[in-house]
UniProtKB/TrEMBL annotation:
It is an enzyme of class 4 (lyase). The gene is mltG. This is Endolytic murein transglycosylase. The keyword Heme does not apply. One of its GO terms (biological process) is cell wall organization. Functions as a peptidoglycan terminase that cleaves nascent peptidoglycan strands endolytically to terminate their elongation. Residues 1-43 are annotated as: Disordered. InterPro entries: MLTG-like (IPR003770). One of its GO terms (molecular function) is lytic endotransglycosylase activity. It comes from Bifidobacterium longum. The lineage of its organism: Bacteria, Bacillati, Actinomycetota, Actinomycetes, Bifidobacteriales. Keywords: Cell membrane, Cell wall biogenesis/degradation, Lyase, Membrane, Transmembrane, Transmembrane helix. It comes from the Bacteria. NCBIfam families: endolytic transglycosylase MltG (TIGR00247). The chain crosses the membrane at residues 50-71. It is found in: Cell membrane.
């Protein structure tokens, strides 16, 4: 009962300071109607106190959290500024001196950047990789001429330009092995004598058995970064290994059948300059072989004399000492006469159907070639060629 009265007076007493005027018009407090109402007021007052405490705690927590977040962001901003300063460390260029720099097949931007930094070409790897990644730049393999202390963007301009890549050897379909060897030696800086020694040893440990010790036909057409290779053996093995892999991929039979396919394909590659004709030329070869006829191909005679087909003379076609003279010696020549491409190899595997025994290129500018099943038809085609020559040469 005493607590109830105390609560009543606490809730309803209004104190007036000394010397101040009492509140005018104020009504006396209304007493509670019951103990229940007094307990209700006490509960309300406790809830207000608890709410106030919770709000105060929340405000303090927000202040602490906000301060922590702000400090964290400030530190992160400071670190990012520091990292950014490191990332953009770059030389103004244009640089000085000369650096021969090689990008190997399969190297990524990060690895290239590390090598550039070691060579003192760029100031930081980040300056290089950030530009490459931002622009999705393609960097090509090869040997490039750079300078020390170049701007990263200028280095990228060079490494993304294939025209500035030195030391690349392009092996073309129809090209002879001797030409490939000479170009490989020149571009790689490796002595020609090193290639000659391997050739003299019949490609030991490089060529497959079915090649018979001859590289002709066994050098896969394509592009090779010979400047990055250390020896003639490494260069030739790369070409031969790619050739073997390609023949396996094309389904060319192994053993002696593989060499036969390569010989026929190489003749087709050398005789005509349009893929549309390869299948017909290989059919002519097969038909002639079946009938026991000599092949009579200028391309094989030219190979045996180390000249171009257009340089073949009547005397050359009568020379029986040339093992590649298919006018005088029946059957296929002893080796391929060039490095055939995929289309010619496919044509050797799958000749077109037909009864042709002859073919003649009637227009040397366009490469138009006509095929014939009889000698009379062939003579007409030859006459057409002679007419074109008279009018155009």
């Amino acid at each position: 009962m005493t607590d109830d009265f105390n609560e009543f007076f606490d809730d309803n007493t209004h104190w007036v300071e000394q010397g101040s005027e009492p509140m005018r018009g104020a009504e006396p407090p209304e007493p509670p109607k019951s103990r229940r109402e007094m307990r209700k007021r006490r509960a309300q007052r406790r809830r207000k106190r608890i709410s106030g405490i919770i709000i105060a705690i929340a405000i303090v927590a927000l202040l602490i959290g906000g301060g922590y977040f702000g400090v964290t962001k400030l530190i992160a901003w400071r670190d990012s500024r520091s990292n950014q300063s490191t990332a953009i460390a770059d030389y103004p260029g244009p640089g000085y001196g000369e650096v021969e720099f090689t990008v190997s097949e399969g190297q990524g931007a990060a690895e290239i950047a590390d090598n550039l930094l070691k060579a003192e070409v760029i100031k930081s790897t980040a300056a290089f990789t950030s530009v490459v990644n931002a622009n999705s730049t393609t960097l090509y393999p090869g040997t490039f001429t750079l300078k020390k202390h170049m701007a990263a963007s200028k280095v990228i301009d060079v490494l993304s330009d294939t025209n500035q890549a030195a030391g690349f050897l392009e092996v073309r379909p129809g090209e002879r092995a001797t030409d490939v060897f000479a170009n490989a030696a020149k571009l790689s800086g490796i002595a020609q004598s090193e290639f000659d020694t391997i050739i003299k040893n019949k490609g030991k440990d490089i060529l497959p058995n079915e090649a018979g010790g001859s590289f002709e036909g066994w050098l896969e057409p394509g592009t090779y970064n010979v400047k990055s290779m250390k020896s003639a053996s490494e260069i030739l093995k790369a070409m031969v290994d790619k050739r073997i892999a390609k023949l396996d991929e094309l389904g060319v039979p192994a053993g002696s059948d593989r060499e036969r396919v390569m010989i026929i394909a190489s003749i087709a590659e050398a005789e005509v300059n349009k893929a549309d004709y390869y299948g017909k030329v290989t059919r002519v070869i097969e038909n002639r072989l079946e009938q026991g006829m000599s092949l009579g191909m200028d391309s094989t005679v030219a190979y045996g004399n180390n000249v171009k087909p257009a340089q073949v003379t009547t005397e050359m076609t009568q020379d029986e000492s040339n093992p590649y003279n298919t006018y005088k010696i029946s059957g296929l020549p002893p080796t391929p006469i060039s490095n055939p491409g995929d289309n010619a190899i496919q044509a050797a595997l799958h000749p077109e159907g037909g009864n042709w025994l002859y073919f003649c290129t009637v227009n040397l500018d366009t490469g138009e070639t006509k095929f014939a099943a009889t000698a009379d038809e062939h003579d007409q085609n030859v006459a057409e060629l002679r007419k074109w020559q008279a009018e155009n040469q």
